[in-house]
Each structure stands twice: as C-alpha cells, then as structure tokens.
Here is the input.
Amino acid sequence: MKIIRLVGLSLFFAGFITFILTLTFGQYRLTPALIGQTIKPEHRAVLQERTAFMHGRLYTSNFAFISDFKGAINAYNAEVRSRQEWDKVIYDDYTFEVTKAATQGIFQGNAWLWFWLSIGVATLGALMYILAGLQRLPGIKNNHLYRHPATDRGWIGISLGAFLIGFYIVLYFYPEYLTNWVLLVDPISQGINGGPASRWFLYGFLYTLVIWVMGIRMLINYRHNRYQQVRTLSVIFFQTAFAFLIPEILTLLNQPYQDLKNIWPLDYTFFFDYRINEKIQAGGFGIFMLVWGTALSLVAVPILTYFLGKRWYCSWVCGCGGLAETLGDPYRHLSDKRLVAWKIERWMVHSVLVFAIVMTLLVLYTYFSGQSTILGFLDSYSIRSAYGFWIGSIFAGVVGTGFYPLMGNRVWCRFGCPLAAYIGLVQRFKSRFRITTNGGQCISCGNCSAYCEMGIDVRWYAQRGQDVVRASCVGCGICSAVCPRGVLKLELGPEKTRVKSEELRRGRPAVKN
Here is the structure.
C-alpha cells in the first residue's frame, strides 16, 4: 500500500504540474475576421482600427496578447472620456472571448490529449493515494492532525490556500488568463450542452470532479458510519445532477440555465430583472422554474427544516456544503471554537442576510416600477453590484474556499451564507432536530468539539448531558461519528423536549424526553 500511495502521489503532482504549465502553452493571433465573430456590431469598427497593429501578429505569450488588446481598449476609452463622449465608452469586456478565439498551437485538435495528461493523470494519482486508505482499520484517528503541515496551517496547507485564493481571483476577475484550461474541457462541454466551454463550465466541472474525488475519500474514511456514507453519496449526486448536468442540459434545450437546488438568498440573482425576464420569455418551463425557486425559498425551507433540521440542505444538498464536506474535511478541526468567534459569526451572517433581503426588495422595486433609485440615495444597481463583488465573489469564493486550510472548511457557511442564516433561524426556534447527549458516558476526549466544523463546543453540552440546539449546527453528524463512546445522536422529536440554549446559559434544569 505504501508503494501505491507513493505512485499515486507522484502521478498527482505530475498531472497537477502539467495542468499548471498548460497555461503557458499556445500561440495567439488576432485577425479582422475574429473581431467580427466576437465583438458586438456597435464596437467592431472601432476595435478593428484600434487593434490593427495586432492583426496577423503571432504572439507566443498570452500575457503579451492580453496586454496589447486591453491596452488598445483602455487607450480608446481614455480618449473618449477626456472628450466626455460617455456614449462611446466601451464597457463590455471582450478580452476572454477574444483570447480564447485567438488561441492557436498545441490545443487545436489535441484538447483530449492534454486533458488526460493533466487533469486525468492528477485524478488517477489522487484516487490511488486515497484508495490506499482502505488498509487502515475503520474509525477516525487524529494521526497527528494538529501537527501535520498539510492540516495544521503548515506550509503545505498555506500553499494550497494560496493556490485556491489565486484561482478564485483569476476566475472571477481575470478569466482571460485561464483560456487554455477552458479549452481543455471544450470537448466535454460540446458533448453535454452542444456548445464551447466557458469559464463557468470549467469551474463547474472542476468543482464536481473535486467533490467526486474527495467524496470517495470521505466514503473510505467514514466507512464505519452509515449516516456519513449516505450523506456523502447525497452531496455527490446533487452536485453532479442538479448543479452541473441538468443546468447544462437545459442550455442544450434552449431553456434558462438554472441550478434547481439553488435557493434564494444563496442564489442572490434569482429575482434580478434579467433572470425573471429570461424565465418568462422561456414560456411554461421558465414559469415553472420561477415558481419552483420561489416555493423553495418561502415554503420548502421552513417545512423541511421543521421536520429534518438544517441538515436537509446544508449537509445533504448544498454545493457549498458539498465542497466543504469533501475537499474541506481535512480542515474541519481548524474552525474557531472561541466564544468571540461565535459572537462575530452571529452578527456577520445575519447582517449578510439583511443585506440580501434589502438588495432583493430594491431589485424587485426597480423591476416593477422601472425606477432604480428609492428615497433619493438607494440605487438598486449599485447595491446589487456591491453585493455581487463583496459577498458573491470575495466572501463566498475567495475567502469561503481559499481559507479552508487557514480557518476551517465552513468559513462561508458560518460567517457569510444568507441561506444558512435563514435556515438556522428556523432550526433554532421552530424545528424538531437536535443532537442528544448521554453525559454519563462522556469521557471528555474532545473529539466532538475538535471535529465540529461550525465551531460549536459540543463537549460542553455532552459533559452536561444537554441537547445541542444551535442555529449554526448543519447536522453533519461528524461529532457523533468520531465519538468513541456513542455519546451523541442526531434525533428528531417534539419541540417542547428540546433544551434551549437560553436555558443552558441561565442554568435552568434540562428537559429530557
């Protein structure tokens, strides 16, 4: 098994390094015909003239190509702005589409080859390394989790965090530098939706692939626990089918792109004007998607949370939770368990929820009234732009995933997800879900608290024989899975039998079944 792990690790790094190096491959040539294919009619003449010095020139570096193309547009915009000809300013960002279309060289006709040499080899190596874990006996052991450089803010973990942060920054704000990666998955995109890949198809594919690979790791590591097995298969299924394949198939059928399990306010653009118009124009199925999404938010969330707790979505369905539970599993112990972290968490996550609600109300006001400003200073377009940048991009993506190796795997879920805040309020005050404890069996080993990704000091409850009833608990069940004495159980029961956290703080006696 050691040889398999070593070979797997070697293959993973070989494929990963090849994957990184593919960004430097390729040649780029801009032509007048390409301008005509990728630029809007109103901007073609201007860009034909401004990029004339690039036409026919062969670039061997995407940095040089992108720099010249952006420089031409920026110079033109600077000129028209200096003359205050605001209607002539080019606000559209054509760089990604033009760079992708201008790519020549080794990727032409060889996308599959480079896909398997990079992503394919890395995936094979990761699976070999993971499958070698079957040699270990079932059950969770710390195995120096708090000392290993990959899992305790060491150089490996910091390097991974830096890579993830860099990837999200480039993906959101500089996608033109990822065109070679997009070309790698072009054949897959053509096979699923009949069209070329976009940066979001690349992201969705990589996201799903990572959940599959690390999900297999979860299945092996937690093979002693049936709940974890079923839960892991659930997040793999929903990510693959609902978040990746179905939206792409909808595009193939000329229907609006929609992740049917994504729920407002997590899907904060759901009620944006262009999304509503897109669904209405799509006819019957588009109206169904509009009604479906609204019903999920207003009806399904409170009902399902009442009967099943927050876990029905956050740990079984959600794509963010799916990545956190698979890719983020090695870092769950890094979540801050201090009281001050809990206080910050409550203020931050509920502030984002209020932000999302206010933004949505303003967006709907604009949609129905045609006016973008209310009270003379609240502009719906500015607010939606601010939310998209700070919450949708920076918080949910760059920080939410990039900080796994630094702050644990549920940074976004704890401190930023508005849907988690919404479901958490329902779970906290109107749900049958709780984690019951048997204090007489607790040996105070601390495994439950250490592995709680939401920063809950579960041991504090277990030592007192108190039920865990918290808005932040996502019902992942890991605390129960790592308990050596079976002290913790995820249960459903009448609301009146739950021990409220206020009662714990005030020292009232526990109400037991």
